[in-house]
Each structure stands twice: as C-alpha cells, then as structure tokens.
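Reading group handout, session on sequence-to-structure problems. Before we discuss, look at one worked example. The prompt was deliberately terse, the way you'd type it at a terminal:

> structure Splicing factor 3a subunit 2

The input record follows.
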Amino acid sequence: MDYQNRAGSKFGGGGVASQSATNADRRERLRKLALEHIDLDKDPYIFKNHLGSFECRLCLTVHQNDGSYLAHTQGRKHQTNLARRAAQEKRDVRRDIDPQTGLPVGVVGAGFGALGLGGNGKGRRPAVKIGRPGYKITKVRDPVTRAEGLIFQLQLPEISRDAAAAGGGGGPKWQVVSAFSQRVEDPDRNFQYLLVAAEPYETCGFKIPSRELDRREGRTFEYWDPDAKEYWIQIMFMTEREERFNAAPGLVGGPR
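And the output record:
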C-alpha cells in the first residue's frame, strides 16, 4: 500500500494513513497470509454463486470476497457448526448408522452394492474415514445440440493405494442412483444422486436433476489423474427431443 504519495504530504515524508486505509491494508495482508496456508479449491463448504459472491454451504452465509469467507471460517458460528456436524456423525456411529448411505449398518440399499457401500459385506476392509474431499462443479452446454451437462472435479490427495489402483488403474468409482435408494434426505422423484467412492474419504453424494443421461461415447465419461490425484466426471443430459425419441418404440435411431 502506498503510504507516501498522498495529497498534503511532502515527498519522502510519508503521510499519515487514515484509520479506514489502515484497516483495509490489514485485511488484505491477513487475506494473503491465510491463502498461503488454506486452499479454497479444496474447501467443501465454499460455493461461488452467479453474482460472484461466496456462500458457505455449512452456515448458509453470503460473503462478498474470499477474504470475508476466510474470516468467517475462523469465527465462532462456523466453528460451532463444524463441531455440531462432527457430533452428529458420532451419534450416527453410536446408532449403527452408516454415514455414507444413511442406512443401518448391514443393510444395503438398491444401487449401493455396486460401489461396495452400506454394510460390512464380504471382502470389505475397514477403513478410517478422513472426511469429504474437495470438489468443484462446472455447468457445461453442448454448442451444437444445446444439451446441458455437469463436470465434477474432486481432489483426492490422500486416496489409498488400493483405491487408486482399483480396476486396473481405474481409480475411484462413481454411480448414479435413485432418490429412493438413500435415507439421508426425503425422497424426491425430481432428483437423483451421483455417488463417488474413494477410500479413505467419505462417499460423496451430489444431488442432480432426475433426467436421463446421455451415455454415448464422448458424452458421459470419467478420468482419473494418478499424478495430480484428481478425479474428473462429465455427465450430459439428453435434450427433451432426444428423450421423446428414446421413449417412442421403433425409433431406435433417434432424431435426425
């Protein structure tokens, strides 16, 4: 910050900074120091909305810049909500509730068995969970068909070697399940869930619209980067026209 080139001060004399300018400089300095130790891209609770503001998913607060959000994470409200969430997870463990699926331990919901979730099935190795991974979600649109889609980017720096080498180098696993296959939230037929499993992280569930996925080659795919420990998933939804043609019998070729 320039403390010298101020109106009313002699060259080299260093004018007296106002209280507001001093506070702004202090906040900027603290923000830079915090960003050296905190990676916001790996924070699962931060969300940047369409207005450019930052939202805290945990506390449901809105912040005008990242510095304000960083100050919020060190405040009492955010720390209290973190403690409440940790206590809730401990209570779920005491009640024998699997925190990954919301089902009682030993019960496997439809769609969860393929990911090895829910219950201590045969071949399941006990693992100590270390929390949720950092993630970033981006909306995409096909420039030709105008089909909508989502790209999920997850950072998994602490992924276990067995999970990273699963399926011959396939890395983590993902699957889309119905809203009626989970017990974490009340079922809503308008939504479905995209689950991502990677030990020792907790299984992530992303709530997406209940629309048919376009599973053609190059439309919906996954990519695991073993060097950067990043997992990418792209899903594309079918357009309304494509859904109508797929639902009509005899129109296998789809629209032209």
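Points for discussion. First: The first strand starts at residue 46 and ends at 48. Second: The chain has two domains: 19-77, 113-246.
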